[in-house]
Amino acid sequence: MNMLLLEMKYMLRTSIFIILLSQIGLVRSQTCCSAGAPISSAIDVMTGDPKALSLQLYYEYKSVNRLVSDNLVLKNDPRSRSGSSLLFKGDYTLSDRWAIGLILPMVSQRRKTVSQTEDATGLGDLTLLSQYSALSDELWQLNLTAGVKIPTGMDLHRDDNEIVLSPDMQSGSGTYDLLFGMGLVKRDLLMPRLTNQTVFSYRHNTTNNHFGDPSKMKGRVFKFGNEAQIATSLSYLLVFEKWFLIPDLGARFRTVKANEEQGLAAPNSGGNWTSLLLGVGIYPSDRYGLRLFSEIPLSQSLFGLQITTDVILGVHLSTNFAMGKPKNRENRFLDSKTSMQ
Amino acid sequence: MRLLSICLSLLIIISIGCKDEDPIPGSVFTDTIPPAGTPSWLIPSNEVFDGGPGKDGIPSIDNPSFVPVSEVTFLDDDDLVVGMVRNGMAKAYPHAILDWHEIVNDQLANSTFALTYCPLTGTGIAWDQLVDGIVTSFGVSGKLYNTNLMPYDRETDSYWSQMGLKCVNGQLVGAQINTLPTIETSWKTWKTLYPDSRVMSTKTGYSRNYDVYPYGGYKSDHDQLIFPVSFLDDRLPAKERVLGVFVEEKGKVYSINAFENPQVIVDEVNGEEVLIFGSKADNFMVAFLREGLEGVSMDLSELPIIAKSEDGNAISISGEIVSGPMLGKQLASPVSYIGFWFAFGTFHSQIEIFKGS
Questions:
Q1: Which residue from B92, B305, B60, B252 is spatially nearest to B182, judged by alpha carbons?
Q2: Which residue has the higher pLDDT, A341 or B318?
Q3: Does the first or last residue of chain B, that is N or C, have fewer Cβ atoms within 10 Å of its Cβ?
Q4: Residue A323 carries which DSSP code?
């Protein structure tokens, strides 16, 4: 009986750990115009047991069919956009404090009008991340993240007439960009098993001085607008025999500066978005997890005329492997015992 | 064993991500990148840019509706319109609508035409829809050359250059476009000139915010060009409004500032004598071949008459002689249209600028 109780406690501890992993989806890109794929997404890396490896796979579909002029939603738009990305993420914890990670996306963009459908699919930009855990105890966790996006993605997708497609249709941006993030977790908020996570992230983009020109002699001078976002969510742990269910609910505010063309702010780009985040994670064992998530825009205040996202749907698969001695297992057991009551 | 399973998982995931990734023509991973100016293009294809909305992403208006001048409430006096006058009938196409649609396929009297308008070069040009023996409508391709509109024709799907006035890619490559004369002016002047005309309505079939100019401060910011151009001529401020007048391949531009005082300029373009009428206060510039008229002077007292010749011919803004010895004659128009200076400087290297007489 004691062995069974210990096993259940261990599983619960692991599931709490996975909660944090599953929340990585908090920081996801919203518009169709973020070449290089969910660049801002998943900038958290895990912290937990030293020498633990986590492998994750995201699939995300975006429907981009809302035409907005400033705050006015327009009708009868002959165009539609959609995008999907398959994102592989690997994290490795070096120590109690430090972790590293990488994100490798495959990006597919579709632009459809009454007379033409154009697709562009390819490797996106690789992102390398490092994370420092400034605070980690039974109730609080504070992570600081920094990363760099490397232009491994394709940025020369062309149409049927061999004309290079616009930057927002490309899989990569052709630039080195910087990512910064801060994540705060509060466990047992108000009640046991209720967790709040708040993530702030900032993406600093650089300029592609020769977009569309493989010779790098001419081309278009283009820069995606820098963006900042803050997302907060509540998740609750439900325990069923040997598996767990974690629903979560949150909101995101995202602000993006206008893109730059030829060194000056481009009209019809940038703005502010607020959206609702919904998700549910299912964890049948301590190693594997499946999470379904969605993002639904609540409001937007955009600069000029833009087509913007009306819904995001996604799936997140995760697995993890502990290769070192787990830290503070006994303390976690005590904590999980409380949580299980 | 655990390490082995980790390695296997990594390999599987990486292989899933990579194995279906076919080389994409033109990508950095192939050697099939088309060189600039491939034979199928009359212009350097690497200077053609994708504007973003896609083909027909900016919807042309193919069945425009019109209202009388008296019912127009969405225009201010200073707002610009592009007017068409044929056989005594007149229609006006407001920039406020053209900014959102760029092409209107329409007809007036016996003419079918596409009124093409590029918000980024400020050029409104009426294209005859009869092209190479084919009558076709035009749509917005979503591509830009020298930051200027590239229409496509719906009969052959060929791509055209608005200011180049020719087909640059596709079945009709090399074909020339014929233009029809237009009158670009302010709403205030237009409704004075043609109070009985019809004005394109905002009931376009699309819900658009026609009260808002969709390009921010672009049209007054001389430093802002959204897409690259092959050459930038800085002899005039980039967004200064000029009238370009062309006789065959050679042209000359006239700045609106040359008409601080309403005047008619008698000039020569490519050896052809032309009359350029303009008034900055009334915001119009039009050009006609001189056709033997002598002693022409401006007279704006009886609009739409704008000038009279010494032998008593009264000339309307559409070039019709409405009284006098040449009554009924329609003065021929050279190819002429108004736009931002930089666009003329880019498309027509070292084009002559009228410096004043």
A1: B92
A2: B318
A3: N
A4: -
Residue A13 has pLDDT above 90, yes or no: no
Please give the Cα distance from B252 to B231 (Å, whole number): 17
Average pLDDT score over chain A: 83
Please tell me if residue B208 touches chain A, with a CB cutoff of 8 Å: yes
Please state, in angstroms and as integers, the Cα–Cα distance from residue B71 to each residue in A218, B88, B104, B198, following that order: 49, 21, 21, 10
A86 close contact with B: CB closer than 8 A: yes
Q: Which residues of B touch A118 (CB under 8 A)?
A: 54
Residues of B in contact with A307 (CB under 8 A): 53
B226/A267 CB distance under 8 A: yes
Distance CA(A84)–CA(A121), nearest Å, equals: 9
Among A122, A218, A305, select the one facing B24 at the smallest CB separation: A122
Q: Is residue B118 within 8 Å of B218, Cβ to Cβ?
A: no
The dihedral through the CA atoms of B223, B44, B100, A78 has a sign that is negative
pLDDT digits (tens, 9 = 90+) for B172-217: 999 999 999 999 999 999 999 999 999 999 999 999 999 999 999 9
CA distance B79 to B76: 5
* CA-atom Rg of chain A in angstroms: 21
Instruction: Tokens 């109730």: give the residue.
Output: A139
Interface of A with B in 270-299 (CB under 8 A): none
Dihedral, CA of residue B308, residue B314, residue B316 and residue B320, to nearest 10: -130
Residue-wise pLDDT tens digits, B37-47:
446 899 999 99
For B283, residues 6+ apart whose C-beta sits below 8 A from its C-beta are: B78, B80, B185, B186, B189, B256
CA-to-CA dists, residue B87 to A120, B82, B104, B157, angstroms: 50, 17, 20, 32
CA B239 to chain centre: 14
Q: Least CB-CB distance to A156: which of B3, B13, B28?
A: B28
More confident site: A52 or B8: A52
Number of inter-chain CB pairs under 8 A, A vs B: 150
CA B74 to each of CA B83, B119, B211, B321: distance values in angstroms, whole numbers, following the listed order: 17, 19, 7, 33
d(CA B333, CA B290): 9
Q: Which residues of B262-301 are buried (b: 16+ CB within 10 A; e: fewer)?
A: bbbbebebeeeebbbbbbbebbbbbbbbbeebeebebebe
Residues 6+ apart with CB under 8 A from A162: B25, B26, B34, B38, B45
Q: Regarding predicted confidence, which is higher, A40 or A229?
A: A229
Q: Return the bridge partners of A59, or none.
A: A86, A315
CA atoms within 13 A on the CB side of A87: 30
Q: Is A327 exposed, middle or buried (0-12, 13-18, 19+ CB in 10 A)?
A: middle
